[in-house]
Amino acid sequence: MSEDRALDVRLVLGTSAGGVGSHVRSLVRGLAGEGDTVRVLGPESTERRFAFSLEGAAFDPVEIGPSPRPLEDARTVRRLRRLLEGADVVHAHGLRAGMLAGLALRDSTPLVVTWHNAVLARGPRGALIGRMERYVAGRAAVTLAVSPDLVERVRELGGGDVRLAEVVAAPMPSALRTRAEVRAELGAGAAPLILAVGRLAPQKAYPVLLAAARLWRDRPGRPLTVVAGDGPLRAQLQRRISQDGLAVRLLGQRDDVPDLLAAADVVVLSSQWEGRPLVVEEALRAGTPLVATSVGGVPAMVGDAALLVPPDDPSALAAAVTRVLDDPELADRLRRDGALRAAGFPTEHDSALAARRVYAQLVGVR
């Protein structure tokens, strides 16, 4: 490499309420700490949620929604073209951001794209997204994928330099309330408390969780299941809960996940697919027993530190949760193994430095 200097990095992302925004925020923090100039380009709603500007980045509002809208996308490309001028490297997060950033870049500025999610759509929408995938895979100078299956997917689509991304959760603050206080607030009392955390969206397969909750509802102590998160399926899920008389509470968006993790007897992830879900890392760090579907990057994350079940199988999910609740030795082993597993994960700073090394290689600096 020819020189040692600060970099001018532009980070592009779309609408985010969870892991993508958290990862970009951690990149901002790390890059700014290295003395680099960082600008984040994305929706104002994402800036309000993650406050990139408070971490050391300049922020420029650019509307990048989850679905293609030709007229709005054309305006976005024109705006990005102006805002990306002068960058050393552009790092886009997600397919939509990667596609629009790729269309906006006319010069030799290298484009890095992180793939955070797999395509679950079928039919015409799935075909459209498949074309977007091929374009983004071929357009990026380097692709960072958050799970081994995504690495293989991008390579199959023609991606050249494809690497496994280091995406990690931010350090989790300590619980502010006691376990008893949280359980009292939730109405759990002495009942087993089962926790799910995540956006109320199809990927998370909450109908599978509700079907499993029906299977464990008549257990002694009548377990209480709580879901922290919000999203487009909330009304539909609430109707199902009410119709089936389930002991399930939708808590909405919460800012006290550490408290919830400390109060829970088991954390459940019922998703159809996940890359490197932050809630898995948070549960392992908290030492809370975890039951998760064996999808995407989850098996590589947890090893033997969680119970894994097939996706779309309420009976298997209910059986695994019941095992944890009925077997204190198993629960203790999962707590210990989870904490040990999490201790070996990269830090936020490690993740930012790994991304910066990619940028430096592309730009030719140290």
Automatic annotation (TrEMBL):
Domain Glycosyltransferase subfamily 4-like N-terminal residue range list: 18-164
Any one GO molecular-function label of the UniProt entry: glycosyltransferase activity
Alphabetized Gene3D superfamilies for the sequence: Glycogen Phosphorylase B
Glycosyl transferase family domain location: 185-338
InterPro entries: Glyco_trans_1 (IPR001296), Glyco_trans_4-like_N (IPR028098), Glycosyltransferase_grp1 (IPR050194)
Pfam (any one): Glyco_trans_4_4
Record-given protein name: Glycosyltransferase involved in cell wall biosynthesis
GO biological process, one term: carbohydrate derivative biosynthetic process
UniProt feature coiled coil, ranges: none
Organism: Motilibacter peucedani
Keywords: Glycosyltransferase, Transferase
